[in-house]
Amino acid sequence: MRARDLAVAYESVTVDSDALEAARLLAEHRLPGLLVLAGPGEPRAILPASQMIKTLVPAYVLEDPALAAVVDEQHADRLCEALAGRRVGDCLPADAGPPPVADADDTVLEVATLMARVRSPLVAVTGGGEAGGALLGVITASRLLDALLPRG
Amino acid sequence: MRARDLAVAYESVTVDSDALEAARLLAEHRLPGLLVLAGPGEPRAILPASQMIKTLVPAYVLEDPALAAVVDEQHADRLCEALAGRRVGDCLPADAGPPPVADADDTVLEVATLMARVRSPLVAVTGGGEAGGALLGVITASRLLDALLPRG
């Protein structure tokens, strides 16, 4: 079994996607994160749902969390206005690096080792050989566990 | 809207649960992680699926990842034997702290601020007042986003 056999499609957006639409995607599908592409098939980053939450919290509250208790609920209802006109790329942390990338021909242990070392919840799989560097899909940690567990 | 209105049940195990059963729970429900309890209603840690993967990878491979490519597949098939007889507590990283905990009466913005500051994919909610310190459930980042997004 190789990485290509475990890779599945995953919800993805591009750095130029509308940030509000990306938030809806996370919310509606109850996703822990999205795969962000720089261009077709080019993994750029993982955008965790918690990072999207961070984008919504006003800077003055992040600096002084005690203020969160005194902001009235009407204001809280409008937090998502912070996303209007913004792109997904604007929501990524400054230090967001590319997600770990496995080659289609990597073994299950190679994928597991990569995931364990960077503590990433998912690994992108790009095609070696005839597929060039194209994105084949992702492998989540739970999918990999499923492949490693004995049957029955 | 308060934290108590958003808290939902979440798959949880205790530090004394069987590690192999916990891995099965992650795999079968395709969960990004489990809530680990120290005792009834007492949040101890979050166990990410990627950490469970890390438990399976032999120490000598983590130290020298190039070895992952040369371990044969029969060996890889037996990686889960590393979990036999182990408890969930044995799989937690040494530095695993308790998950962030919100009070049932916290506002949505307070929960969002807590989640944003610690970059946690979920927040445990324990009951204030009549419920004492009992665990009411968890709020995931995507659930919180759903609550914050404008309707329609």
From TrEMBL, chains A, B:
Entry keyword annotation includes Isomerase: no
Extract the InterPro entries matched here.
CBS_dom, CBS_dom_sf
Per UniProt, residues of the CBS domain are 94-152
| Pfam families the record matches | CBS (PF00571)
Q: Does the keyword Thylakoid apply?
A: no
Q: Which domain of life is it from?
A: Bacteria
- Keyword annotations from UniProtKB, A to Z: CBS domain
Q: What is this protein called?
A: CBS domain-containing protein
